# Entry
Amino acid sequence: MTRSTLETRQSRSSGEAAPTIHVRVGKSDCPSPHSLANKVARVAWATTWLLLFRPTPRLMYGWRRLLLRLFGARIGRNARIAASVHVWAPWNLEVGDESAISHNVDLYSIDRIRIGDHATVSQYAFLCTGSHDITDPRMGLTHAPIEVGDQAWVCARAFIGPGVTVGEGGVAAAAAVVTKDIALWTVVAGNPARLLKERILRTGD
# Structure
């Protein structure tokens, strides 16, 4: 039996101590939302990742694309996915043509993650489709898909939260914490991420 304590912090004019609310949640009250088939598939993928995906040399992109496709991922032509990329559930992943996912990116694909064509996800970025309902004493799982548009860039160590769409050409700057959609061809930065500027491509080069 685990015990969670929530203390109200509202001040009282009488000076009385704030009441303490105790919520008791047993292990049996928090069943896993994932099916047995899902768990078995993830164990199979984790084993494959550890033995056949993670140890591969940098340039073996084709082999890693093949392994991801075998587990249901939709991977486009010449997509470059680093060996240290962690994918929670490949069957929820789609990566477009000529896109790049750099080392140590975490694709927490409880829900669908779609990365468009010619997009870039830089090192240590975290695309997180899952969360928990903090109003629920059992902290029930919540999830929503993430979409990264064509020619978009998720920079190093950026966090993209559940339900976020990074529009075509959009940029999440380094270490940005993105919880709202990024408009087409704009750059956001900061925590929480805010509009920084428009992204304008040079012409004539």
Remarks:
- The helical segments are 36-53, 61-70.
- Residues 1-13, 21-28 have pLDDT under 50 and may be disordered.
- The chain has one domain: 39-197.
- The chain has two helices and 21 strands.
